[in-house]
Write a structure and sequence with these properties.
Helix content is about 35%, strand content about 20%. It is an alpha/beta fold and about 240 residues long. It folds into 2 domains: about 110 residues, Rossmann fold (3-Layer(aba) Sandwich), CATH 3.40.50.10860; about 130 residues, NAD(P)-binding Rossmann-like Domain (Rossmann fold).
């Protein structure tokens, strides 16, 4: 998507992938490679926050960075995940009650965004430890052991379950119960129909994978990478063309 933008606009740049084994080495690696910008994915979004010299916008609220821009040797961090997700679920109507599966970096960003939008949020995570980071927020937290189901307008999987395997983000009986009481489902993973979304599909629940979220956050990231000099609609057109390939 980013390379499509560069090709369309005639910009000499290249967007590629770099494997980062140790999140604490992010800044060192970034500067060593003389990068102009970077997107950071799981599991290094909190490490990216700590690597930055300055944090701007929504990222300040959530302590999670997925986009870094090099400004004269200073690493400036942003979060475009949440706005990208809101872009993705734009066609879902009357979303008031949301259940978030997982408690990692993506969940932090989305939960805060949902709260900012006035939504009622519950979180379900395997362990209690990660849930403690949400203690100061007006959310209801559950582990697999103490979950009490309710009716939700939207259930969102923010875990990596199903990314590389056929696992679900929670035990099958819990997923069955949850999906029987929701109107919509979404998954942050893109490029495949995850087992979670397969279960939603079986029940004829309208769903979204992470492709539109990827597009939405990508447009904002590209806009930042290119110094906010280009129209977002123009960037979206170039990115959408690549996404459809």
């Amino acid at each position: 998507m980013h390379n499509s933008v560069y090709e369309t606009l005639g910009i000499k740049a290249c967007y590629t992938r770099i494997l980062l084994e140790d999140g604490s080495k992010l800044k060192e690696r970034f500067l060593h490679l003389s990068l102009s910008g970077a997107n950071i994915t799981v599991p290094h979004k909190e490490a990216a926050f700590n690597a930055c010299d300055e944090i701007r916008g929504f990222a300040k609220k959530v302590g999670v960075v997925n986009t870094i821009v090099n400004e004269n040797g200073r690493l400036v961090g942003y979060n475009t995940d949440a706005d990208g997700f809101m872009f993705a679920i734009g066609e879902f109507t009357n979303i008031k009650r949301i259940l978030v599966l997982g408690a990692g970096g993506t969940a932090k960003a989305l939960v805060q965004k949902f709260l900012d939008e006035g939504m009622e949020v519950s979180i379900l995570n395997r362990s209690q430890r990660r849930l403690e980071e949400f203690a100061s927020l007006d959310v209801t937290c559950y582990t697999w052991e103490n979950f009490q189901n309710s009716s939700f307008d939207l259930v969102v999987n923010t875990t990596s379950a199903g990314l590389e395997d056929d696992s679900l983000p929670a035990p099958k009986e819990l997923i069955d119960e949850i999906l029987s009481h929701t109107r919509y489902a979404a998954d942050a993973i893109y490029g495949k129909l995850t087992p979670f979304l397969q279960e939603a599909q079986k029940r004829s629940i309208p769903y979204k994978d992470g492709a539109d979220m990827l597009l939405g956050q990508g447009v904002l990231a590209a806009w930042l990478f290119l110094g906010k000099r280009h129209d977002k609609k123009e960037l979206e057109r170039a990115m959408r063309k690549a996404l459809l390939l």
